[in-house]
Design goal:
By secondary structure, the protein is an alpha/beta fold. The radius of gyration is 15 Å and the shape is globular. It contains 3 helices and 11 strands; from the N terminus they run E-H-E-H-E-H-E-E-E-E-E-E-E-E. It has a single domain, classed as Purple Acid Phosphatase, chain A, domain 2 (4-Layer Sandwich), CATH 3.60.21. It has a 6-stranded mixed β-sheet with strand order 3-2-1-9-10-11, with helices on one face. Strands 4-5-6-8-7 form a 5-stranded mixed β-sheet, with no helix packed on it. It is an enzyme of class 3 (hydrolase). It comes from Superficieibacter electus.
């Protein structure tokens, strides 16, 4: 299973267009969006190319291939623009060997984990910081932010391919962080 992950788009049209271009080239079956899709939120500056209605239109073109969760900046008004469901606070994807727990990161995350089993993968956004590591038997993965990176990091997204989780720079495709997962 090949999956692409994006978090914290925050209404940036250039970031969305770049992400969708990379998604089309990636061979990934699903684009998993980890919340904060359209709204920039009161704590963030406006991202480059802030155009939430256009971001919604572009994402809707791939609606049948998107799995999404709600972020702390997402609302019912945002859902009215999007044709794929994105109001669930978390989702789970089950593989033959492990569970992927998908969430934004403000309700469940590194500091407030849901009940998980060793080998499961906690996948979240919210912090805008890339993470690919194993803690106490649980894999933690944060693809960073495609539009408003923090901590001196660059815009990034994530991939799960051949049992490897990678955080990849949005602009130059450089691997920022990675971890192999044991199925």
């Amino acid at each position: 299973m090949k999956l692409m992950f994006a978090a914290d788009i925050h209404g940036s049209l250039p970031a969305t267009e770049r992400l969708l271009h990379l998604f089309a080239q990636s061979g990934a079956r699903w684009l998993v969006i980890l919340g904060d899709v359209l709204n920039h939120g009161p704590r963030n500056a406006l991202p480059d190319g802030y155009a939430p209605a256009e971001v919604a239109a572009r994402l809707n073109e791939q609606a049948q291939r998107i799995i999404a969760v709600r972020g702390n900046c997402d609302s019912e008004v945002d859902q009215m623009l999007l044709t794929f469901p994105m109001m669930a606070p978390w989702q789970q994807v089950l593989t033959a060997h492990q569970r992927l727990f998908l969430t934004h990161g403000h309700l469940f995350g590194a500091d407030n984990q849901p009940p998980l089993s060793p080998g499961d993968i906690l996948i979240y956004g919210h912090t805008h910081l890339p993470v690919a590591e194993k803690r106490d038997g649980i894999y933690h993965f944060n693809p960073g932010s495609v539009s408003i990176p923090k901590g001196g990091n660059e815009a990034s997204y994530g991939m799960l391919d051949n049992n490897v989780l990678r955080v990849i720079a949005l602009n130059d495709q450089r691997v920022i962080a990675e971890i192999a997962i044991n199925p």
